[in-house]
Amino acid sequence: MSRPSTDGPSHLPGEVPGYESHLVPAFRAHKSYVCPTCTQPIAQGTGHVVAWPEGLMEERRHWHRHCWRLAVRRGRVTGARDVR
After folding, report:
1. Is 65 helix (H, G, I), strand (E, B) or coil?
2. Cα(57)–Cα(53) distance, rounded to whole angstroms?
C-alpha cells in the first residue's frame, strides 16, 4: 500500500471543478499570508490550502483549511473566481 508523499503540496481532488487546490504542510509553509475568507493571517509554519483557477496561477490564494472547506461548501469558490 502506497502512502501520499509528504515532500510537497497534496492535491485536494474534486473540490471545485476548474480549480487547482493543494494542501501545504506546515513544514513547507515558509511565509505568512492573509486568508481571503476570514482576512486573518495564516502564520508561517501553519499548514493551509493554496488554490487558483486552472490556468491562472497568478491568481492563487492561500486559505486556512477550515475556511477553504467552508467557502467550497457555501459556494463561495467557483471555477472562475473566489467570492466573499
Report:
1. helix
2. 7
Give the closest residue to 48 by CA, choosing from 34, 58, 59, 57: 34
pTM for this entry? 0.74
Provide the grid cell at 64: 486556512
Which tens digits make up the pLDDT trace of 2-29? 444 445 444 454 468 888 899 999 999 9
Chain position carrying cell 501545504 = 24
Span 44-52, mean pLDDT? 95
